[in-house]
Amino acid sequence: MGKVWLITGASRGMGAQIASAVLQAGHLLVATARRKESLADLPRREDVLSLSLDVTIEEQARAAARGRFCCSCEDSARGTSSICLH
Asked: Residue 2 pairs with which residues in a beta bridge?
């Protein structure tokens, strides 16, 4: 089994491209976007979890940060991106 990736902004653009690459590499994906319905194009598989997450809301961001992920990629509303290995 692969690593668990948390990707914010996974509904489009770079976030969607990274999500696709993560799945192609055989990893588990926690894909987030401000509106969960915008993640509808992601494959419905047991290695994909789609969640609503608005990183501009401090409580939501803190809750997501408490998860245990191998890798995270932030590509959300602020137009920044980073990859953090935990």
From this structure: none
Tell me 5's DSSP state: E
pLDDT above 80 for 70:
no
Which of 65, 43, 61 minimizes the C-alpha distance to 52? 61
Q: Using the 8-state DSSP alphabet, how is residue 69 labeled?
A: -
Determine the Cα–Cα distance for residues 83 and 73; give it in Å rounded to an integer: 5
pLDDT, tens digit (0-9, with 9 covering 90-100), for 9-48: 999 998 899 999 999 999 999 999 999 999 998 888 899 9
pLDDT of res. 1: 65
Given phi > 0 = left and psi -120 to 50 = alpha, else beta, which region is 15?
A: alpha
Domains annotated on the chain, with CATH: 4-85 (3.40.50.720)
| Residue whose pair of structure tokens reads 């401000």 in the numeric block | 34
